[in-house]
UniProtKB/TrEMBL annotation:
SUPFAM superfamilies per UniProt: Periplasmic binding protein-like II (SSF53850), Winged helix' DNA-binding domain (SSF46785)
Name of the molecule in the record: LysR family transcriptional regulator
Gene3D superfamilies named among the record's database cross-references: 3.40.190.290, Winged helix-like DNA-binding domain superfamily/Winged helix DNA-binding domain (1.10.10.10)
DNA-binding among keywords: yes
Stored PANTHER family: HTH-TYPE TRANSCRIPTIONAL REGULATOR BSDA (PTHR30419:SF28), HTH-TYPE TRANSCRIPTIONAL REGULATOR YBHD (PTHR30419)
Keyword set, alphabetical order: DNA-binding, Transcription, Transcription regulation
Protein family membership: Belongs to the LysR transcriptional regulatory family.
Length: 293
């Protein structure tokens, strides 16, 4: 068993390129190719489909990926536990994050981690709820921020961090801008701009639970584009409070008559490594102190 080869295989499966794998691991491309070829000879079947510069996992490669990442995780956890016994806090924590967490929480959490545990490296991978759950299930990340209401990760430890409301955003030019609350009828009668990436599941759940049939005019993955469309009175939208920038003079934020929330949690792989435990503790304490405002 070669842990170095396993690390090369895991990284190649992540980036789908031998060239990029070599760059990220500080190896030559020939060393990467040799390691993969050696594993394929050892296992007696191909791990990747090669197509010019692109590579793709074979089904056998996919079947082995989670197990190999588990081996690498336990090896890293062993190193961390030995360091902890020797009074050292060292290790790597791979964290799945979505954009509003990256913007509002992560810079402050990492700063505190670096101050208290400078030898623990934090690696971030950004995606939406579904992508983060997939990375957790495939052992690509050690922990990840998730939506407690929609998550299917029931076998993971999930630390509840914050519950926040979904709010409606409308243009100052909209006839709805003076409303204190927005009703189901208000939402159904106005052109709606549907977020399709980060908070799609939150809004879909709200519509489903309340039997709302929105008049979807646009679907948009980019939050800044959504705000621009709302600002120009092309429609209304619904977003979690954390996503909505403060001090937008041309956009009015209005509560929903039927209150809806999302709950953000930190899902953690078991068993929990010492470095991940430190990251979870720092995250939870920071949110309790600062992130609830």
């Amino acid at each position: 068993m070669s842990l170095v080869k396993y690390e090369i295989f895991s990284k190649a499966a992540e980036v789908n390129s031998f060239t990029k794998t070599a760059e990220e691991l500080g190896l030559t491309q020939s060393a990467v190719s040799h390691a993969i070829t050696s594993l394929e000879k050892e296992f007696n079947f191909p791990l990747f489909i090669r197509n010019n510069s692109a590579i793709k996992l074979t089904q056998n490669g996919k079947d082995l990926l989670v197990t190999i990442r588990e081996i690498l995780y336990y090896n890293d956890m062993l190193k961390q536990e030995v360091n902890a016994i020797n009074g050292l806090n060292k290790g790597t924590v791979k964290v799945g994050v979505f954009s509003s967490i990256s913007t509002n929480w992560i810079p402050y959490i990492i700063k505190e981690m670096e101050e208290k545990y400078p030898d623990i490296e934090i690696q971030l991978i950004e995606g939406n709820y579904a992508e983060i759950e997939k990375w957790l299930l495939e052992s690509e990340v050690d922990c990840g921020f998730v939506n407690n209401k929609t998550t299917s990760l029931h076998s993971f430890d999930i630390v509840k961090l914050k519950t926040e409301p979904l709010l409606c955003v409308v243009s100052e030019q909209s006839p709805l801008h003076s409303n204190k609350h927005l009703s189901v009828e208000d939402i159904e009668n106005a052109p709606f701009i549907m977020p399709t990436y980060q908070c799609f599941d939150d809004i879909q759940l709200f519509f489903k639970e309340n039997n709302i049939q929105p008049n979807i005019r646009f679907e948009n993955m980019n939050e800044n584009s959504i705000f621009s469309m709302v600002e120009n009175n092309l429609g209304i939208s619904i977003l979690p409070e954390m996503i909505i920038p403060k001090g937008l003079d041309t956009i009015k934020v209005i509560p929903l008559e039927l209150e809806q929330t999302r709950t953000i949690g930190l899902a953690i792989r078991r068993p929990v490594s010492p470095a991940v435990k430190k990251f979870a503790e720092i995250s939870e304490n920071w949110v309790k102190t600062w992130g609830l405002n």
